[in-house]
Amino acid sequence: MSKPKIIKELKNKNPNISKKNLEKIFDLFLQELTESLINKKHIQIKSLGHFFVKEIKAKPKARNPQSGEIIYVPKRNKVRFRASKRLKELINKQL
Q1: Measured between alpha carbons, how far apart are the two ends of the chain, in Å?
Q2: Cα(79)–Cα(42) distance, integer angstroms
Q3: Which residues pair with 79 in a beta bridge?
Q4: SS3 category, 60
Q5: Residues 6+ apart with CB under 8 A from 43
Q6: What is the dihedral of CA 5, 8, 9, 12, to 10 degrees?
Q7: Where are the domains of the chain?
Q8: At residue 12, what are phi and psi to the nearest 5 degrees?
Q9: 44: three-class secondary structure by DSSP
Q10: What 8-state DSSP symbol labels residue 65?
Q11: pLDDT in tens, 54-89
């Protein structure tokens, strides 16, 4: 679902809040989420799940599959999401 569609759904469910305010609220939420992840803080939204940053170790002897040459892959950070138990139940309930 894209950002404009989310804003449209929020507007339909909350007609008393202006579209401009909904966009600001959504942008602030995403900004806080991003800043927290940049600072490697864990974010837990009880009914949704858990966002966290995981450090992937460097690989000094990785192999390029096309050429077969040995290359170095530096360490990096990845954003991970673990769904809450409630969200998993809701998704599997619809099957």
Answers
A1: 20
A2: 10
A3: 53
A4: strand
A5: 33, 36, 37, 50, 51, 52
A6: -160
A7: 1-39
A8: -65, -35
A9: strand
A10: T
A11: 999 999 999 999 999 999 999 999 999 999 999 999
Q: Would the pTM count as exceeding 0.85?
A: no
Tell me the two tokens of residue 91: 């998704």
Question: In the chain, where do the E strands start and end?
Answer: 43-45, 49-56, 59-63, 70-73, 76-83
* Type of residue numbered 26: F
Token digits of residue 1:
């679902």
Average pLDDT, the chain: 93
Compute, in degrees rounded to 10, the torsion defined by CA atoms 35, 80, 90, 17. 20
Q: What is the DSSP string of 5-54?
A: HHHHHHHHH-TTS-HHHHHHHHHHHHHHHHHHHHTT--EEETTTEEEEEE
Q: Tokens 């966002």 belong to which residue?
A: 51
